[in-house]
């Protein structure tokens, strides 16, 4: 295989264009001198093994790992300080290689990933995930590639617990198992069963509950520091907006109701006002905002409309219930009619015609009672639904008329404001020539005096 072919080898499919990720192509991608990786690949490594032998060895390693007490960190779940080179990323797990294995076709995958692929039991599971050639042999990659992977810089797995240390990937297991102050260990107390961070291990069991000095809540001793710093509702904190000092438990209410520096919307936003500003200046805006004046009216109208909708929904449920009862009554009516026919037929052929006639009269009376009860309930429900419908229509019509009245008032107010603004501008221009009047040639010289005429604003 030529150098150019090796460098640009890819696996083509309908959706993906994967890099080849053979050992040689990875070295070229990382700009490793050919002498370095050629000498590394010539060093003694484990000989290739068959796929069946690899599967057997891997399963034996899994059994031994289950029996082992120590737990290793899954290196594929680590967060990297800088994104790793794509040539070092396994195309199965999308993470940098962990114990990479090279197939007979020279494509490389994590040991766990290729085992999972070969053992999944689906069709073509025995083929390479990239080139679809049969997987007959596997072998570990040269040591140089493993060294490049080991040198990748990662975050501590416990960084969300507070550990900010950055490590080389190959040191992560030692750091977590021996040195990380935020790693959870079994409580030193034999009958406790809890866990405790390594930094508190020398203090003994911290799983007893103690009382917080500030809020008097019972908190587990190992969590008391975090409780006092981040959770205690009675602790004094500063508001992020106005920097006022208050209890942590009141911060949310303070921001929603009291804080003068919190940005809020005008109460007229429900009818279209877009103004937003700090609470301390909102009162001044509300005093001059016509939409804020109407907001309470529209809120009341919306509440009333919601009440009517809920009432309408309740009536619909009642109507559905009455319809179900009607169907049941119709079924009973059908059965009674059939029973009456049978009784009549029987009365004509037996000597107990008087008894049958009484039975028929009884059935007729019962049927009439059921029919009358149904008609009464149906009439009541229909009347109530019609009443609520008319009430809703009247209310909507009244609201529409009020809305048009308010809209006309706003239009008139706008015209008055525009008129006053224009008069103010005219007065300002006249003031520049003295006493608010414009003259042509002077009054003594026969000039025409152009006095500013004040116009009355249009009446509503």
What does this protein look like?
- Keywords: Coiled coil, Metal-binding, Zinc, Zinc-finger.
- Pfam families: zf-C3HC4 (PF00097), zf-TRAF (PF02176).
- There is one protein chain.
- The protein has 460 residues and is an alpha+beta fold.
- The chain folds into three domains: 3-177, 2-Layer Sandwich (Herpes Virus-1); 183-226, no CATH class; 291-421.
- The chain is 49% helix and 12% strand.
- The protein has twelve helices and 18 strands.
- A four-stranded antiparallel beta sheet has the order 3-6-4-5.
- Helix 11 runs antiparallel to helix 12 (353-430).
- The longest helix is centred in the C-terminal third of the chain and has 78 residues, at 353-430.
- The chain starts with a helix and ends in a 9-residue tail after the last strand.
- Residues 1-18, 36-44 and 432-455 have low confidence and may be disordered.
Shape: extended
Q: What's the Cα radius of gyration?
A: 44 Å
Q: In the CATH hierarchy, what is the class of the largest domain? A: Alpha Beta
| Topology as a string of helices (H) and strands (E) | HEEHHEHEEHEHEEHEEEEHEEHEEHHHEE
Structural class: alpha+beta
Approximate helicity band: 40-55%
Mean pLDDT across every amino acid position: 77
């Amino acid at each position: 295989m030529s150098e150019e072919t090796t460098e640009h080898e890819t696996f083509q499919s309908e959706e993906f264009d994967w890099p080849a990720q053979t050992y040689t192509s990875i070295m070229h991608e990382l700009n490793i001198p050919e002498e370095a990786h050629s000498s590394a690949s010539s060093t003694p490594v484990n000989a290739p093994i068959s796929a069946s032998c690899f599967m057997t060895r891997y399963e034996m390693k899994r059994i031994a790992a289950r029996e082992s007490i120590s737990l290793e960190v899954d290196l594929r779940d680590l967060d990297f300080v800088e994104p790793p080179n794509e040539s070092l990323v396994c195309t199965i797990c999308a993470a940098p290689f962990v114990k990479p294995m090279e197939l007979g076709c020279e494509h490389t995958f994590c040991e766990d990933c290729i085992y999972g692929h070969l053992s999944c039991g689906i069709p073509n599971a025995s083929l390479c995930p990239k080139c679809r050639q049969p997987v007959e042999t596997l072998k570990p990659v040269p040591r140089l590639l493993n060294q490049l992977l080991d040198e990748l810089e990662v975050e501590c797995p416990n960084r969300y617990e507070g550990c900010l240390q950055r490590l080389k990937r190959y040191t992560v297991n030692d750091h977590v198992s021996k040195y990380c102050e935020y790693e959870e260990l079994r409580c030193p107390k034999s009958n406790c069963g809890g866990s405790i961070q390594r930094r508190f291990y020398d203090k003994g069991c911290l799983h007893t509950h103690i009382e917080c000095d500030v809020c008097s809540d019972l908190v587990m001793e190992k969590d008391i520091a975090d409780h006092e710093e981040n959770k205690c509702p009675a602790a004094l904190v500063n508001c992020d907006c106005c920097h006022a000092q208050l209890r942590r438990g009141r911060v949310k209410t303070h921001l929603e109701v009291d804080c003068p520096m919190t940005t809020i919307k005008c109460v007229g936003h429900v009818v279209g006002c877009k103004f937003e500003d700090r609470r301390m200046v909102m009162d001044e805006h509300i005093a001059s905002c016509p939409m804020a004046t109407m907001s309470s009216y529209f809120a009341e109208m919306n509440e009333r409309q919601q009440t009517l909708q809920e009432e309408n929904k309740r009536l619909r449920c009642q109507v559905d219930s009455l319809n179900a009862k009607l169907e049941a009554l119709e079924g009973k009516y059908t059965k009674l009619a059939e029973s009456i026919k049978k009784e009549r037929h029987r009365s004509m052929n037996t000597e107990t015609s008087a008894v049958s006639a009484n039975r028929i009269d009884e059935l007729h009376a019962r049927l009439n009672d059921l029919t009358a009860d149904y008609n009464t309930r149906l009439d009541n429900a229909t009347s109530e639904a019609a009443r609520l419908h008319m009430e809703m229509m009247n209310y909507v019509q009244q609201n529409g008329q009020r809305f048009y009245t308010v809209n006309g008032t706003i239009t008139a107010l706008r015209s008055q404001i525009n008129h006053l603004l224009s008069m103010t501008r005219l007065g300002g221009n006249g003031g520049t020539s003295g006493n608010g009047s414009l003259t042509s040639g002077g009054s003594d010289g026969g000039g025409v005096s152009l006095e500013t005429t004040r116009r009355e604003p249009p009446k509503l």
